[in-house]
Write a structure and sequence with these properties.
This protein is an alpha+beta fold. The protein has 2 domains: 2-125 and 281-294, Diaminopimelate Epimerase, Chain A, domain 1; 129-245, Diaminopimelate Epimerase, Chain A, domain 1 (Roll). It has helices spanning 34-44, 77-89, 136-142, 172-177, 182-187, 226-238; strands at residues 2-12, 21-26, 48-53, 62-67, 72-73, 99-104, 107-114, 120-124, 129-133, 156-159, 164-168, 197-204, 207-214, 219-222, 249-254, 262-271, 274-281, 283-294. The chain has an 18-stranded mixed beta sheet that branches. The protein is globular, with a radius of gyration of 18 Å.
Length: 295
């Protein structure tokens, strides 16, 4: 005997199918355990797969567990945006609902919808912690770049639920020339040897041009990394590379080099006297499918 699990595939941070970051969403995964979820994510082999469960919190519309092919994530951006789209599209969250929260391992993640012909879905970046800085020469070496390719500011680890080291470079060409293999990733682990994403970017007139590598997560290169874009904004503001005025909007373009152009929108908001960073984007539905698992 087998049990059928229905799932959707959507492309996130794009208005066009076959661009952006692909995501599989299982709208009802209540009959799956965590081990099975990890095996399914490995089988589908997308950057991430999201599994929807009943929430354990009164302030959240649903609980979402998120897996890369090799590990479960505390928080991830494109699964939050893509799952929100699917839940509204399927009526699990009423289509007219514009503000809600999803329960993830990091806690409640607020989501809001900006209405329109193609609605923009926004998530609120969880609290960001600043970690250690890294040697510029080491970072250049593991990325196959020269030290002069990097901007004269220290690469640094920031974390909003997904540890990421940010490495600023001078040009789009340097971003496109960069590459990171497994050996290089192991040289850039944090002080407690934690796994991390490696995010390389250059400032542009309308925001940033970016790439992200996470080979130890099973992701050679990620087309769009919403969980790292809030910390990217924090890093850029800290070093004077982006404005820090509430109401400011800009865009991080990611995934272009790998043929999956993604546009991650950043908006700064004043919330309870503090600066909040919202990350938003569009979603393009691609496929509906059924997975049959032996029982």
């Amino acid at each position: 005997m087998s049990q059928e699990f229905r799932y959707r595939v959507v492309d996130v941070f794009t208005e066009h199918v076959l661009e952006g970051n692909a995501l599989a969403v299982f709208p009802d995964a209540s009959a799956m355990d965590g081990e099975t979820m990890q095996r399914v994510a490995r089988e589908l082999n997308l950057a991430e797969t999201a599994f929807v469960l009943p929430s354990t919190r009164n302030d959240c519309a649903a609980r979402v567990r998120i897996f890369t092919p090799t590990k479960e994530m505390l928080f991830a951006g494109h699964p939050t945006i893509g799952t929100s789209y699917v839940l509204r599209d399927e009526g699990i969250i009423p289509a007219g609902t514009l503000d809600f929260a999803l329960e993830e391992q990091v806690g409640a993640v607020p989501v809001r919808v900006e209405p329109g012909e193609r609605p923009t879905i926004w998530l609120r970046t969880p609290p960001i912690t600043m970690g250690p800085v890294f040697d510029r020469a080491l970072c250049a070496n593991v990325l196959g770049l020269e030290v002069d390719d990097l901007l004269d500011m220290p690469p640094q680890l920031l974390n909003a639920g997904n540890p990421t080291i940010f490495i600023p470079v001078r040009t789009r060409d340097a971003v496109d020339r960069a590459w990171l293999d497994m050996a290089g990733a192991r040289q850039l682990r944090g002080p407690d040897r934690e796994l991390m994403c490696v995010f390389i970017f250059t400032p542009t007139s309308n925001g940033a041009y970016s790439r992200m590598f996470a080979p130890e997560y099973g992701i050679v290169e990620d087309p769009a990394t919403g969980s790292s874009t809030g910390p990217l904004a924090a890093y850029m503001m800290r070093h004077g590379l982006a404005p820090d005025t509430p109401g400011t909007r800009w865009v991080s373009e990611q995934g272009t080099k790998m043929g999956r152009r993604s546009l991650l929108h950043v908006q700064l908001l004043a919330v309870n006297g503090e600066l909040a960073i919202d990350i938003g984007g569009h979603v393009a539905p691609l496929a509906r499918a059924t997975l049959c698992l032996p029982m």
